[in-house]
Design goal:
Layout lengths: L1 H21 L2 E5 L3 H5 L4 E4 L3 E6 L8 H25 L7 E2 L2 H10 L11 H8 L3 E11 L3 H11 L5 E13 L5 E12 L4 H12 L8
Parallel strand pairs: 2-4, 2-5, 3-5
Antiparallel strand pairs: 1-7, 5-6, 6-7
Length: 214
Amino acid sequence: MKSRLQIIFSTCLLLVSVLSFAQEKQIYEISNMKEIIGTHKTVAILPFNATIGYRKLPKDFDAAANKEAELKMGYEMQSGMYTYLLRKTSDYSTTVQDVEKTNALLKKNDLLDKLAETSPEELAKILGVDAVIKCSYAYQKTKSEGGAIALTLLVGFGTGSVATGALTMQINDGKSGDLVWRFYKQMAEDVMSSPSAMMERMMRKVGRNFPYQK
């Protein structure tokens, strides 16, 4: 009985911690944001700058494989965001450039590995858009998936959190390069999360704060 109470107590503490973490959110808007975004007809989503870290490095950690996984996640999240916005086109005041076209133009101009070194106005000019959406996602694994699955099976509800995620999304005006809007949020990631599922959940959290929403 005592052991069961300890498990329930530990689970409650975990849920409180996760809920508190998930509520951390920061938003920045330039003073004349509505005026600026009102001139944006087409925007481009850049590949995400994704990082994958570990609270404790696994014994079989492979730096090269981790880097490859980060690049893959960055493209998958870019695609996931594009798909989400595409499905809700009627809800937004701007058109989003096809990410395949965006990436093709970036590759053609040898910029895929130089996004951090290139100004927003340069990128917007090359891509032929009025604004660029730049995103970063820091994913840190906090425990093993096996342990999270075991805990979920033990208590019977969603405690399968294995990682934390921090999303930063910003919009820069293509003409001036100015930062128009910035959104930052931390959240807990479930054991079964995929990049597309994470992006779907993130965009729902961005929700009404996304400046292009009508």
